[in-house]
Amino acid sequence: MTGQEGWQSEAPELVRPYVITKGRGLPDDGDLSLITLVTAAAGQPQRPSRLSPEEQSLLDLCSAGYLSVAEIAGHTQFPLGVVRILLASLMEGGHLMTRPPVARARLADKEILEEVLNGLRAKFG
Amino acid sequence: MTEYTGNPLLWVALVALVAAAVLISRQRRAARALRQQVQGLRDHYTELENDYGKSVQAAQERAEDETKTVLKSAMRTLQGLAAEQQLVLSRLQNKYGDSPLLQDLLEIDHTNSQFGRRAQSIAVLCDGWLGGRRDTASVYDVVRSAQGRIRHFRRVDILSQVDFGITSRAVEPVALALAELLDNATSYSSPDTVVEINIRTVPKGICVVVDDAGVGMSDEERARADKLLATERASGVAGLGNPPQFGFAVIGLLCERFGFEVSVDSSSPYGGVRAVVLLPHELLTAMPEKKAPAPAARGTARPVPDAGGPEAAALASSETGDGLPRRRRKRPMAIVPGSASAPRAAGRSDSEQAQVMGAFQRGTRSGRVTETAGPDGADRTSDTPGASSEGHEVS
């Protein structure tokens, strides 16, 4: 891991992540999973001025359309959990909305498959 | 007349008179000598007293200096350790960003910051090291940095922002002084109240106003604060009381050394103390371009190389505008080739690996000889080893 040696000489960040999250706790896993899609809430031309620069930039990122939580985290330099906390607080404030990930296709019924197989065997086998 | 001279009584009286006169004059002389002696002794005594005072003071100063030196180097070690730990914590936070562990890491980070600040304060009192070099930062970020260094940072609310930066030299001192003010404000007000921060531009520079809803200061405390902030600088750690009250002593020293002003002589509209930090124009700069909107700047810059895959990223950022090689974060690179090639490489010895690579190279060469070898193909092969060696170096 030679690549990490260069990092150690860096000064620690001035503003620590726990200040950026204002000491809030992690949201529930169900609320914001990695693949939850997030976008800026419609009908909010007036952006509140009380948001921190980090929250502002997250809103900027999300204003273009739906992005997954994982993507948003990739575009910032913060740990994923920190991004999730910030997104959760923005959702609470009504600046963001989420769409739950598309449900996985339900597995076809095993009995139907067996019947089809039997039918095919009967016809061609 | 003769009858008088014949009277022996007269002679006796005369002799007695002469004797008395002699005695008196002798006594006088003795008294004078004694008085002189007393004066001499008194002079000697005051001289001794002065000497004693001087030597005690000198000894005190020497002891103070020695304490300072010891504390200074001890604090320097502690500060270094705290900074090191902060870097380790940053790495851990990135590594375990998606696990519930992050919550605890953030807690530890908070404790570590407080610990670092304590060491820093003592170092300031001993004319010591203030910490590593900082880049220019926005006033808002410096205030937030100060907020992060106290225990009850959740109770601090920053109500306004300004578009100004603080010069790199003043970032740490201002953050430390503000942290001490916020620490006072939160410790001397009830736990359910909020400490408000307002940042305002004034003709002389920028004011950071800290209002708490505590009980305020008594006249005695106010006098002590004024003394430490304005007229008399604290020196060393003596006389800070038990438990020691660092706050105003540290702030006073920082004000003197870095040229900003702090006053606590007004009371806040909520009944507590209003502390005002005045940052003069000398300490202010334009809003830092890179640092303040860091997430946005880096966020938009990074997807571009990401889109083209690792090779494109390597090509795009391997040189700066001046043609110098650019130091890059190599972590993302490490994940991709490392996880893909590591399990396969484990099964082969070095010589086998070399054989395989050699066979591959021979194959590509013979392929290019038989078919028409264009300049495109030559270019691409010269690129590929570069990219793969990049990956190996990292993993």
Q: What is the typical, i.e. mean, pLDDT of chain A? A: 80
Most extensive interface: A-B, 44 and 58 residues
Q: Numbering strands along the chain, what is their spatial order in the largest sheet of chain A?
A: 2-1-3
Q: From the coordinates shown, what is the CATH architecture of the domain at 133-285 in chain B?
A: 2-Layer Sandwich
DSSP strand tally of chain B:
8
**Overall mean confidence score, pLDDT of chain B:** 78
Number of domains of chain A: 1
Question: Topology as H/E string of chain A?
Answer: HHEHEHHEH
- Spatial strand order of the main sheet of chain B: 2-4-5-7-6
Percentage of β-strand residues of chain B: 5-15%
CATH class of chain A: Mainly Alpha
CATH domain fold name of chain A:
Arc Repressor Mutant, subunit A
Q: For this entry, what is the oligomeric state of its chains?
A: heterodimer
How would you sum up the major sheet of chain B?
5 strands, mixed
Transmembrane segments (chain B): 6-25
Coiled coil (chain B): 24-51
InterPro entries (chain B): HATPase_C_sf (IPR036890), HATPase_dom (IPR003594), TCS_sensor_his_kinase (IPR050428)
Protein name (chain B): histidine kinase
